Amino acid sequence: MEGEVTAPESGDAVPAVTDDPEANESDDDSIDKKTEENHEENGSKFKQKFLGDYDYGMLCRPRWNPWAKGATKELQWFGPDSNLAVLLATFLGFQHSLAVVGGTVLPGIILGQLDPSGQAAPFLVSYALITSGICTWIQIMHTPICKTKYFLGSGLLCVIATSFAFIPTAVTSINTQIEAGKSFDEAYGSLLGVFMVGAVFQSGFSFIPGPILRKIFPPWLAGLGVFLIGVSLVGVGVQQWGGGCSPNTICNVGQSNLLYGSSEYLGLGFLVMCTIVFLELFGSPFLRSCSIAFALLFGYLISALTSDRNGESYTDNTTIKEAPVILFLWVKTFPIGFYSPALIPTLIAYVVSTIETYGDTTATAEASGFIPNDEASGKKFDEAIQGGLLGDSVNSLISALSMVLPSTTLSQNIGIISLTRVAARGAGYACGIWMLIYGVFGKVGAFFTSIPPPVLGGMSTFLFANIATSGIKVMTSEGVNRRARFILAVSGAFGLGTIIVPEWFTSAGFLDCPAIESPGLRGLCDAAVTTLSTGYAVGCLVALILNGILPNDPEGDGAEEEGTPLTKDSTLELSCNALVDESDEIVPDSKADEENAMSSTT
Which end of the chain has fewer CB atoms at under 10 Å, N or C? Predict the structure, then answer.
């Protein structure tokens, strides 16, 4: 009825209305308090989603006293399946991209300098960046292959970029074909077909169990290949450092024209090297992990602000002005062919790249919390290795179709995972987006190609020497017995000899290919010349042959060679063999050491 007040149903919350103003004010305060709590809760959710609670300051805090000893703060752990805040994923993705961008663009710059017209380099650099982003996503996704037990991609935070293993073969093959009258586009395109065939060859390794693969290609053999590749590329870096031309000739560095090895050119490269050392000493964890990129940018800045003894600038922005603002793959293409003389060195490079990928993926899996032969994570570990190897071969095929050299999994990002304690795939996806952005903007690729060769040489010399050092680490990762050391000595002699004097196997006195009339035999001779003039190919071939024919060491022989720590028994055995001088005095450092020393002497 009109005017009748109905009673509320049971369970309804009805605010009490009284004539007491203090009671009404108390109700209003409670409502405001609840509203404020809701706002705080929403703000907390927003902060957690977009900012997170990660300690960003630790990554950006400089190390003012690098020699000080102190406890470091342990950061929060994020596993592969963890969800990252938007800012954290973006920030760490940027960090990963800066750690690899220098090495990603370097192969395109080196090969682009072989083009007499100078038009290919910006496209090769941009294609490499775009392909790196796409292939990184493929490697991270860990896609199951239909109706099989196999996967495509490791499912880990693995960043993909152009492999350095194929640069020596590419440089030799392109120069040989240009001397024979072919254009750069034809010479480079003929290698792309070889890389595609090699990618199919590499895919077969992904179906071989890891222990068998390591038995066929032991770590010391793979380390030899990585070491020889690094050593051969150091010469390329030093040549860039001196000005990018041959000794005793005039180099064109931007608008500067000075003799190779001029003090100005050496100073620019030395500045980049010193910057890397400075950042390693005093830089924050973020700067140390990205020192190569920041040193390269700093070197470019100094070269742009200074001039040589004649007042000429070291930089030339013509390439940047002429480059398109936006580009994508296949804006410029190369006629795909097949240069058969490069096949054998390419297949060897794929073997080296496969073993390197196996090691890098294993290290990434362990850094991500996967333990081999473990009940909980052992299966995921094996699937990550298999998927990573197959992903590497598929990515190499995609790279060749995208007009760039084959790709591989990089090791720089493993250190960032250990440093930041973030192994989440979200950071890898963000890194792929950053690499794609770098490549799509054509001005970025043109900028990298306009960096003066001495600046580029200071960076690349360090980078290539680091590759050689990584090869030494791989060689000695599982110990080197007498048999392995003998094989390394013989194969290293051939490999290093070929790097130092490339013509010792390919001179006319040994292989006179122009004198051969038969086209078939002439092709075989050209293939032999290309293979025997590539240091890592010669070294790895010799190592493979010796590893197949030499018998294994007797059981127990080699403990001394592997550097096994001395025990009481081994010390006694060495003393009996007169390998330890009786007059040597053991000086203990502590009481415990004194007791051990007395028992060892006894």
Answer: N
